[in-house]
Amino acid sequence: MRITDVKTVLLTGPLTNDPYLLCFRKCRSAAFIEIHTDVGIIGIGETYTGYHAPELVPEMVEFFKPILVGLEEKEIQPRALWNRMYHCAYFWARNGIGVHVLAGIEGALWDLRGKIDGLPVHQLLGGRLYDKLPAYATGSISNYPWTELVQKFEQYQNAGFRAAKVAAGWYNSQTGEVFNGRTPQAWVDMECEKLETVRRSIGKEFMICLDGHMSNAMSDKMTAWDVGTAKAVLTAMEPYDIFFYEEPLNYNNVEGYAELCRSTSIPVAGGECLSTREEFWQYAQLSAFDIAQPDASYIGIAAFVDVGKMFALKGKRVATHAWSSGGGVMENIHAAFATPNMAILELPPLAGPLHTEVYAEGYRFAEGCIHAPEGPGLGIRLTDELKSKYPFVRGSGEWNSVPGKRVFL
């Protein structure tokens, strides 16, 4: 058996089936990588770059393709091949989009290796460490008025989740307004009102996570927090039993993250925009995350496990970041089951077809938990029907809106 081709598949489809998210954004894009062999086995992976800048992925895949085509079965070793490709493109792929596309190629290599060996990918990563892991519904925006937010949480409860995450602030879909507190006290008052309302409705047992999205807060609609604002807000939230608070600061402020971790009992989480082991190492050394959030479709499956072990040595935990489509979610699930210090997994609730039609036999969610995948490879599929049903639309990636660059709905 040998590798005969490496292809990129770009798709555009509905973002979700969650009505409380569809009011904000309608579509998503996705970039998959297929590794073909002369015996008909195809390895499939996904890069999270396909959600943001899908048009950039195919040319990068073509750049790496000659390194893989012609390799025989015994040479298909994902860690070694990742290192080979990374070294080849070191001048421009040491960080950023190059390594993100490599994550998708690596995912396809792990899927292929698992299919060849008849093993789930988590077994190839060192073995399954859990039978099941808790998961939360990632709900994005905090819908406003609060009656809508309460209904959103109730929807997730009814779907079987025991935990959910929503964003800081609020978004009113009827008016298009967003909350933009200009003072720490304004944020404190609003967030405490939000949590008081939600807790009163859904009870104390349901786990709540919050996301500041401060890596994106650089617009006239939302000003990024400084450490003082973050301290004030998180301290005020402590009575509401928050499972974690994600991205309270911009990632350029490593020292600020470390200071914040020391100042609050709420676990501080982050890492979705960090590209490599080395970036996470800086945070690990300063104990700047209580819960690190690597994304296997962004830094790679093997790197995810390495980051988990890195933070385990510091007595810290890991949670998946997973907002890609079905391939990226499965990459994160397999990495999580081989990582020793997992806290919780992120899942898209009421998922759309670029999740549900991509999941094969590997995705099993029940009673608030993901159960360990059992089939070979990653447990994902890309059918000809799926490809024809959701053709790619240029410009369908998501970015932060600025003048001249409007978010595609």
Plain-language structure description:
The structure is a single chain. Helix content is 39%, strand content 17%. The protein has 17 helices and 13 strands. Helix 12 packs parallel to helix 14 and helix 14 packs across helix 15. It has helices at residues 19-22, 49-52, 57-68, 78-88, 90-93, 97-117, 121-124, 146-158, 184-202, 227-237, 254-263, 277-285, 296-299, 301-312, 326-337, 353-356, 384-389, and strands at residues 3-14, 27-37, 42-47, 132-138, 163-167, 207-211, 242-246, 268-270, 291-292, 317-319, 342-347, 365-366, 369-371. It is an alpha/beta fold. The mean pLDDT is 95. The strands form 2 sheets. The protein has an 8-stranded parallel β-barrel, surrounded by 4 helices. Strands 1-2-3 form a 3-stranded antiparallel sheet, sandwiched between helices.
List the helices and strands and how they pair.
Elements: E1 3-14, H1 19-22, E2 27-37, E3 42-47, H2 49-52, H3 57-68, H4 78-88, H5 90-93, H6 97-117, H7 121-124, E4 132-138, H8 146-158, E5 163-167, H9 184-202, E6 207-211, H10 227-237, E7 242-246, H11 254-263, E8 268-270, H12 277-285, E9 291-292, H13 296-299, H14 301-312, E10 317-319, H15 326-337, E11 342-347, H16 353-356, E12 365-366, E13 369-371, H17 384-389
Parallel strand pairs: 4-5, 4-11, 5-6, 6-7, 7-8, 8-9, 9-10, 10-11
Antiparallel strand pairs: 1-2, 2-3, 4-13, 12-13
Helix pairs in contact: 4-6, 8-9, 9-10, 10-11, 12-14, 14-15
